Amino acid sequence: MGIQSYFLKKKIKAAAKIKISGELTKVQKVAILVDETSAFRDKHYKNLIKLMNVSDEHFNILTIKSKKSNYNEFKGLVLLTNEVNWKGEFNAVELHHFMDKPYDLLINFIPKHTALTELLVTQVHALFKVGFAGGTQDFYNITFNLESEKVDVFITELVKYLKILKVI
Q: Is 0.70 topped by the overall pTM?
């Protein structure tokens, strides 16, 4: 285990203890996490907007990339993994704005659970968090045990549960 991994895990534990207070009554602001391994594409994004009946302007997408590459279908913020220092602190000011905004819903479409994605999930201020099963599931309200390529099923199930909870 490297020093950066040590500090990331330490920050995750500290952030996991902080609980977001409030009750989800209606989903209006949505944060989405994707990366290069995610099967989430523009067609899924458009379908999600339509099914949730939430305006495009109320979605914020953070794309995590290991290096500058062509993968960036989405408007929004890009975080390069080298923008995280050895203490697990984020160098990008824009990222702090993304994480500090209050969201009703955080959807993590990143299939692989890494210390970096877990840190982001714990530090984003969202009332309700959803992601793929695996890794530490304590950070999520709902997880789906699906293959990462089954984004359509993920979205269908998510919308079904949000309707059951009467928040969309």
A: yes
CA 110 → CA 34, 113, 121, 162, 164, distances in Å? 5, 7, 11, 20, 24
Q: What is the pLDDT of residues 15-41, one digit of tens each?
A: 666 555 578 899 999 999 999 889 999
- Nearest CA among 125, 108, 100, 95 for reference residue 22: 125
Dihedral sign computed on CA atoms, order 76, 82, 88, 94: negative
Degrees, nearest 5: CA angle 102-108-114: 115
* 85 Cβ contact partners less than 8 Å away, ≥ 6 residues apart: 4, 91
- By the 8 A CB rule, do 13 and 39 touch? no
Closest CA to 105 of 124, 132, 89, 86: 124
108 bridge partner residues: 33, 131
Domains, the chain: 3-16+26-164 (3.40.50)
> Is residue 132 within 8 Å of residue 108, measured between CB atoms?
yes
